[in-house]
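Usage

Read records sequentially. Each one opens with the input sequence:
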Amino acid sequence: MNTASHPFDQFAERLDKLERRNRRLTGMLVLLLVAGGLVLLGAAQKAERQSSEMESFVLRDSAGKERARLAIGKEGPALQFLNGRGQPLATVGTSNDALLLRLFDRNGHLQTGVALEQDGVALVNYDSDGQLQRGLGALLVTNGVFGRD
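and closes with the structure output:
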């Protein structure tokens, strides 16, 4: 009788070891799956954040102030240049079927605008009082920034 119980005890002991090993492996597998899921969630959030940052691209100076911004606006893509106070200096962009160049005064109001349109070139210029300039008052009679050195 003692010999018959001996193989049964060995079998029970081996089965107990196998069950403990199985529980450990199952626990490690669950832990590995949870860690992998957390890594994938973190990567998905990082990818989402990067795509939203690309909707607007910002350039900052050495002091950390925003000096230029490339963004998609209501009219289309535009590159905006800012002064040290964060006010707009100029924009280059598109609107419908036109290419626009806008220059702003110190108060952030449109001063001069040039639009290259399918029908021709549109030019607007406002004086310091905000009055629309017409004729020769709207145009420089010199080479301006295009003068040869």
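Summary fields computed downstream for this record:
- Helices lie at 2-53.
- The two ends are 115 Å apart (CA to CA).
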